[in-house]
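name: query_chain
kind: protein
chains: 1
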Amino acid sequence: MSIKYTIICCLFFFVSCVSTKKTAVNYHSDPAVNFTSMLQKEVSRPDATTVGVSLTVLSPKLDFDFSGAAGFDSVEKDTPLQATQPFRIASLTKTFVAVAVLRLREKGLLSIDDPITNYISKEHISILKNGGYTPEKITLRQCMMHTSGLFDYAEGGPDYIAEASKDPSRRWTRTEQLQFAMDHGKPQGLPGTTYHYSDTGYILLGETIEKLMNTGLAEGLRILLKFEELGMSSTWLESLEEEPAGLLPHVKRYMGDVDASTWDNSVDLYGGGGLASTTRDVGVFIQALFNNQVFEKEGTLEVMLLTKEFTKQGKSLPEYRLGIDSIIGRKSGIVGYLHSGFWGTVYIHFPVYNCTIVVNDTNGGDNDILQAAIDYVQWLDKELQK
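structure:
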């Protein structure tokens, strides 16, 4: 589902990058002490809306390897939150799905400029045509960049959430979600001409992975993304594969004031969302992605980030690349790559610091953890350069 925290992240980053005000700092020499203090401060504020927050910060360059948590895992505040508790990561799943598609490209099984009609069922092609689309003109690349013109079944309007809330136990299918997009919205533009965030495109990318891997989506992601090899023992596609043994209870998820933890996760499952994980596993994956441990061919990461392609064409780089958003400090020029999720999860990676920060908020409240962590990363990098 949506990337509602991305704008907040952008504001944080721009403020952090362009600020000229010198603020006195009094950091401890041990990074873990500083990050722990940030967490405790956040949940202890008198005006805090956050009941619990977990944080992972990884950076070999800055010698950061931290995971911690503070507060509680639900608004009932009856169980302290632990850093190893898993949660639904919602739209962060899109980064994983886009990487999996690019791994299929590395294997020579597709071109990202192929039409989606090469990989989706005849039934789904028919649904798209009946909905006013020309699916043979919609490409995998456009689905990854949200330029397909496909109406977003999940949050193109209020209808889907309203319908899902009527029966939280309903088991949705990909076909039903695709049809819902046709019934409740219209094409948002010709393919490749306009940006329109769309979970609909990503459920079709999920179908593509299933077809080419001859497996279910869960197994396809697990193999292509090297979960076992990377030691990601707390990540799985919820309800489409067995939950790893020995995990703690999930952090609860909320739809405003509604406890949506028991909603069947098929409401957001087939590519636009669906993965459950921890801040540490997400951090491990993003670090691996940017440190040549996921892709197997030189240049694939550049394809994902569109850097070479757009430079050659003399075009301005879009903020949303292939499954990953981006921001650039207006004065510093520092680039951050990020994605956020509906339930209160966000990651951001700064290549210049080789640093990944992942935050999960129990109830999607307002918190300053991301900003505090970014401030500290920038401060320490400057100190090390002195």
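note: Residues 1-12, 18-22 have pLDDT under 50 and may be disordered.
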